[in-house]
Amino acid sequence: MSRIKLKLLWVFCTAFLAFGGYTYGAGKINVVTTTTDLADLVKVVGGDRVEVVSLSRGSQDPHFVEPKPSMVIQLKKADMLVKMGMDLDMWVDGLIAAARNKKIIYGEKGYVDASVNIERLEVPKEKIDGSMGDIHIYGNPHYQTDPASAKPMTKNILEGLCRISNKDCNYFKHNRQEYLKKLDEKIGTWTTMLAKFKGSNIVTYHNSWPYFAKRFGLNVIEHIEPKPGIPPSAAHLSSLIKVMKEKKVKVILVEPYFPLKGCQMVARETGAKILIFPPSVGGVKEVQDFLELFDYNINQLAKALE
């Protein structure tokens, strides 16, 4: 039996012993999300009629979240599950099976995939294999880095909440409409802030930012990782330094959970500035909601590109 299967078996047994007889009572809609971004958007739409918990922290790599018995317990009592989809949070699938909660399995009204109707980027057109790194067959899954993705994400959340509590649907719709007004104003502000840097070349650690770059007209010319999920070699970093000097790259975007050693060497050699760029709510202490996430990142990017 593989280590992953053994881990999930241990998680299930521990959770069952601790919580086997649990029955959720009436009241607020109990929502579990896989990420903090989703949790914030559920709060926005659901308002005071939902209780929300995220299974991961914003400071964690969303690809790799260790399953825990407490997660199974959360899923067991959930009325609704919201996941990122596109294979970003595949780790939750085993937890759903372990929870044995029919309300949140695929196809039921409490199952929400936030990636539905996202305009997907980098969908592979050819057969992929392990030599290409961690390529996702449904396309690049980091769509939450485009603030406009909150529109389809909240629409999917709205539809899920309305399926569960139709009597509250108008309330949920109103909450979403008010939020989208704020979001549109913010996108206008952020676009103006970065307008004069349109066409700028940037480097990122992981291939997490194509949606962000497309939104604001930036060029991601290279990554610290030679391929997704593959640590950089000395030869790759040497080649990268040469390219960055030629392309006059001023910034390197690094998520809070990636190592800085290779980035710091590249920054010293090129004069580029390293920006710790959280991709999710809670990635740094200053960012506590989805709008603050873009305020924080865009402010520091605009200063660095000046």
Question: Could you please describe the fold and organization of this structure?
Answer:
By secondary structure, the chain is of the alpha/beta class. Helices cover 43% and strands 11% of the residues. The strands form 2 sheets. It has a 4-stranded parallel beta sheet with strand order 2-1-3-4, covered by helices on one side. A 4-stranded parallel beta sheet has the order 6-5-7-8, sandwiched between helices. Strand 3, helix 4 and strand 4 form a beta-alpha-beta unit. Helix 6 runs parallel beside helix 10.
Gist?
It contains ten helices and eight strands.
State the oligomer.
single chain
Terminal CA distance reads: 55 Å
Mean pLDDT: 92
**Major sheet summary line:** 4 strands, parallel
H/E series: HEHEHEHEHHEHEHEHEH
What Rg is obtained from the alpha carbons, in whole angstroms? 20 Å
Helix content: 40-55%
Helix count from the secondary structure assignment: 10
The helix-and-strand class reads alpha/beta
Strand fraction band? 5-15%
Low-confidence stretches: 17-25
Give the spatial strand order of the biggest sheet: 2-1-3-4
What coarse outline follows from CA principal-axis ratios? Answer: globular
Number of strands: 8
Spell out the key features of this protein.
306 residues; alpha/beta; four-stranded parallel sheet; 43% helix; 11% strand
Give the SSE layout.
Blueprint: H1 3-19, E1 29-33, H2 36-46, E2 50-54, H3 69-76, E3 80-83, H4 91-99, E4 111-113, H5 150-164, H6 169-194, E5 201-204, H7 210-216, E6 219-223, H8 234-247, E7 251-254, H9 261-270, E8 273-276, H10 290-305
Parallel strand pairs: 1-2, 1-3, 3-4, 5-6, 5-7, 7-8
